[in-house]
Write a structure and sequence with these properties.
Shape: elongated
Structural class: alpha/beta
Radius of gyration: 28 Å
Number of strands: 9
Helix content: 40-55%
Strand content: 5-15%
Length: about 550
């Protein structure tokens, strides 16, 4: 390390320099030499022999010692340094700022992924460049004239439309390069700040950043633009969706402790931070028609709880029981929830390209899950409604691909919440009643006379029996209201029966079959029991 201090030369005759300026210069020299001596000793690079044995108080060295340790060639030493930093809560502000200014990107990302880290470790993002004429969306082309053609449509709606397009572009590596090259990281950050009161806009922006973080050559740009500091704060949010999106971004940036890559729609609910807890198995949650990665798995709704509202006692109410209840009961699990778009009708469909079959979706999800390391550990699959059909199709596809054999070999069990193995009455209504105009491809595939559905059921049943999978089936017994006109059992008892495993009726409707009323309720406790039994040998090791 080299340090330079420039001062004007003065006469060596002390008699000529007894004024205030001389005294100040003298003290400055003493302070400078002490700083240089301290840093030289700590970093094992003494600049002169007389100063290599200077006495230094421990509290003066702690920051610099940890910084040196964090830059060690030994990975274990680096990780230990980050852990020690994150557990330090007695420093002065300036000491946190020293770390923030001097640490390397690996250390910064590690601190952001450490649960106890003080937010003072993170500098404010650099100032954003001024907007050029054309607005936020012109960095990717001539988008503004098209956006203006919406006329009186609210700006937030236009921005959401543009954001959804950018999310799709960010799934392509070369497009990520263009987003970065044209200042997209800064422009998205400006939009993120402008819409602090619009979580949906912010989540779509985080989806883009998370997708860009899949490309390691963009990591330095993401760090320099200040996104790590923003995500460190978002990680501490009480809102599960916000913290989970931030966790995905930081996990994709953290190549020190994370080997897997989490593609769009794959969210780790636990553990979201770095942890010393050994992870022994995976539990995957796959939602169904009109579901989502988070809202499908919330506690059974009370009216005020439909909107995510954090509560102090998560045992009383949770907006995502896999993240709160299951993670606490089984801390050795990695819990993943998957999200994909579905619709009941193609009426006013936003994009015709989004009309995807079960076969297409299962192939897409299987690829994403394998990239996330699914199959490397024992696995339990938990699915609701159409999600169960995707699980069946994924396992059948994996069985036909040698490179996916670990997914099959490590599958320990499957839970189906009201899965229409033999079709759904929703499909019958969509055809016979004009309530659902232009039923979506997903709905059509749920028809009882669907050849694809029958083939899937027959093939999977034979396959599951051969592999001796443990299976648990839950089924609704109460009807579901669809709009104000239709009331029906979406999945009747006979359709929810896979043909193997226990079949358990529950006095709820289709939407609430996967939403326990409370932690000690039968639905959750029976689910927990199945997971523990299926993974008993793996969790013991």
């Amino acid at each position: 390390m080299k340090s330079y201090i420039y001062v004007q030369t003065v006469s060596l005759d002390k008699g000529e320099n007894h004024g205030i300026a001389w005294q100040a210069r003298k003290e400055l020299h003493k302070a400078a030499r002490k700083v240089l001596a301290t840093s030289a000793k700590i970093l094992r690079n003494p600049f002169a022999d007389p100063f290599s044995t200077v006495d230094i108080e421990d509290h003066e060295c702690a920051v610099w010692l940890l910084l040196r340790k964090s830059k060690s060639d030994d990975k274990t030493t680096r990780l230990e340094a980050v852990r020690e930093m994150s557990e330090t809560h007695h420093w002065h502000d300036y000491q946190y700022r020293i770390i923030a200014q001097a640490c390397d990107p690996k250390t910064l990302i590690g601190l952001a992924r450490s649960k106890e880290s003080d937010l003072r470790f993170f500098l404010l993002p650099p100032p954003l460049p001024s907007l050029k004429e054309g607005g936020l969306w012109c960095f990717g082309g001539n988008g503004l004239p098209y956006a203006e053609s919406f006329g009186e449509v609210p700006s937030a709606t236009v921005e959401m439309f543009c954001l959804e397009a950018i999310v799709k572009h960010s799934e392509i590596s070369t497009h990520c390069d263009k987003i970065e090259a044209n200042g997209g990281l800064q422009l998205l950050q400006r939009l993120y700040q402008l819409h602090k009161d619009c979580p949906k806009v912010q989540r779509n922006i985080m989806r883009v950043i998370g997708n860009m973080a899949l490309n390691e050559h963009l990591h330095s740009s993401i760090v320099r633009s200040g996104w790590v500091s923003i995500m460190a704060e978002a990680m501490k949010s009480p809102h599960i969706m916000e913290s989970s999106h931030a966790a995905r971004i930081l996990a994709n940036l953290d190549r020190e402790t994370v080997q897997e890559k989490y593609q769009d729609g794959v969210y780790v609910l636990h553990p979201q931070y770095r942890t010393s807890q050994p992870i022994k198995a995976d539990v995957l949650f796959i939602h169904g028609l009109m579901g989502a990665a988070f809202k499908t798995w919330r506690q059974q709704d009370s009216e005020q709880a439909v909107i995510e509202k954090p509560m102090e006692d998560e045992d009383r109410y949770t907006t995502c029981w896999p993240k709160t209840w299951l993670a606490k009961d089984c801390p050795a699990l990695r819990i993943i929830s998957v999200e994909y778009d579905t619709s009941l009708s193609d009426w006013r469909a936003r994009c015709p390209m989004e009309r995807k079959s079960i076969a297409f979706r299962s192939n897409e999800l299987l690829r994403k899950l394998r990239a996330a390391g699914v199959g490397d550990r024992p696995v339990v699959w938990i699915s609701h409604s159409m999600g169960g059909l995707l699980v069946k199709k994924m396992l059948l596809e994996a069985s036909a691909k040698p490179e996916m054999s670990t997914v099959i070999n490590n599958t320990r069990g499957i839970i189906f919440y009201s899965v229409p193995h033999h079709g759904s009455r929703l499909a019958e209504y969509s055809v016979n009643i004009r309530y659902l105009l232009f039923p979506s491809l997903e709905v059509k595939e749920l028809s009882k006379d669907s050849p694809a559905l029958k083939t899937l059921q027959d093939d999977f049943l034979e396959f599951a029996k051969d592999k001796n999978f443990q299976v648990l089936n839950f089924v609704e017994t109460l009807p579901t209201y669809i709009g104000s006109m239709i009331k029906l059992h979406v999945v009747p008892v006979e359709s929810a029966d896979l043909g193997i495993g226990d079949l358990i009726p529950v006095d709820v409707n289709h939407l609430n079959i996967c939403k326990p009323k409370k932690k000690d309720a039968f639905l959750y406790q029976r689910t927990l029991q199945f997971i523990r039994e299926a993974l008993a040998k793996d969790l013991e090791n």
